[in-house]
Fold each of these.
Amino acid sequence: MLTRSITARKNCIRFLATATNTVDQQEVQQFQKFVEGWWDEFGPMKALHSMNKLRVPLIRDGLVNSGLVQKKRIDSPLPLEGLSILDIGCGGGILSEPLARLGGIITGIDANLEIVTVARSHADLNHLDINYLTSSIEDHALGNAEKYDAVVASEIIEHVSQKSAFIEACAKCLKPNGSIFVTTLSKTRLADFVAVFLAEDVARLVPKGTHQYEKFIKPHELQRLLEDNNCRTELVHGMFYNVVTNTWHWCSNTSVNFALQATKLEKVEDCD
C-alpha cells in the first residue's frame, strides 16, 4: 500500500510539473466574435445548434452501450440522471444545456470569460443548474482527477495546438470505465476545402480564420493519442452537414467531420 501511495504521489508530481496550458490565445480572441450571436439558432452558431441532433444521442446512447446508463432508462425523461459530465470548450452552453435537461450533472469549461458569462446567463434564464468555469482543461485536471463519468470535447480539439497534452488532461479527468466523446474535423484536403474555403471564404457561414488546416486531426491520429492515455476506441462515425437544409447526418466517410467515442480502461496493478 505504501509503495502504491508513493507511486501515485510521484505520478501526480510529474503531471503537475509537466502540465501545459493548451489554450491558444489567438483562438480565444477569434471566438470573441461569436459572443453576441451564440444563442441565435440562425446565426453563426447555427451548425452547432443543428449538430445537437447527432451529438446528444451519441453521448446518451454511448453511455448506455458502455453500461453507465441502464438500457431501461434510455426512454425515460432523465436517462443521464446522476452522471457527471465535463463539457470542454463549452462556449455558450449549446451542448451543456440539453445534457443537463437529460439529467446529467454538467460542468462546462471554456477559456473565454465573456462566453462563459453568456453560458451562465442563459442557463439561469432557463433554470438549469450547470457549473460553468473559466478554465483550461489542464488547469481543471489538476484538481479533478478521475471525477467524471463522461468527458465531451466537441468541436474543440481542432482549435488546440498541443493535442497530446490536451488528450492527456481529458483522460486524467475521466473515471475508469468512463467515456470520452470527441467531434472534430479530419486533417484532409477535402476538409480544408469544405470547412475553410467553402464555409469561411465563399459561403461566409463563419468568420474567416475560424479554422486552420494544420490543427485538424485524422481519426487514427486521435485514436493513437487516446490509446497512449489508456483509452480504447469504441466507435468512429463520419458526419455530413447539409448547408442548404442546416441538418447533420451520420455517414461512413470520415474525411471531413467525424465523431469518436473511447472508454478509459481500468489500470492493471503491477504485481511485486
Amino acid sequence: MMTSNREDYLKSIEELQRRHGTVNNRLIADRLEVSPASVSEMLQKLAKEGLVEVKPERNVVLTEEGKKKALQLLRIHRLWEVFLVDHLGYAWSEVHEEAERLEHASSPLLAERLDHFLDYPRRCPHGGAIPGGEGNVSMQKLYRLVDLPVGVRAVIRRVPERRDLLELLSERGICLNEMVAPVESEGLESGILLELSDGRRTALPSVLADSILVSFADERILRKEPWD
C-alpha cells in the first residue's frame, strides 16, 4: 500500500537525485528530518516493493516504477501550489504544506483536470518544473546564486520552499525572475549583498543565498555544473 509516508520518500529521493546526482541515507534523513535508522528501514520496504535500489556505499536510486510515481507526486503537488497562489490568494510561503496534504488525496484524473484548468503551467510558484502527464520535465541550466562573481547579473529562477526563507525573501522584496547582481560586501560577516533591478541593495544570509538558483547570459564565466 502506498502510504503518504512512502510517497514523501519517493518524491524526496527524486528531487535529491536531480539536485545532487548521488543520493545517500544522510541526504534523505536531512531532507525529511528523520533519523538515519528510519531511513534505512523505509528504504528496505521500498526496495522490496521494487521502487528503489540501494547500491554499494548506501547510494539510493529510484527504479523506473519509483521514478514514475515520484514524478506523479511532484506534478500534482506543484499544480496545487499554482492553484493556491493564483486562485485562492495564498502567499508563496504558505502553499507547500497545503499542497503536501492535497497531493496525497489526488487521483491522476484530478491532476489532469487541474492541469487543464490552470492552462498547463510549466513552473510552480517557487520555480520548480512541473512534470507533464507522461513524466517529461522541462529542464533549465541553473546555478547557485552564491557562486556568482561580484558584478555579474543573473535572474532568480528557483527558490527554496522553506516558509521562513520565503518570508524573508518577501520582506526583502525579492521574487522569481528578479534581476540581481552580487556586489562587494565589506563588513558583512556571512551571506551575500545583492543589488536588485531597481537599484536597491539588500543582504541575504548564507543559508538562503546558498539555496537560490539563477540563470544568466554568459555561462563561460562560471565554471560550475548546472543544478537543474
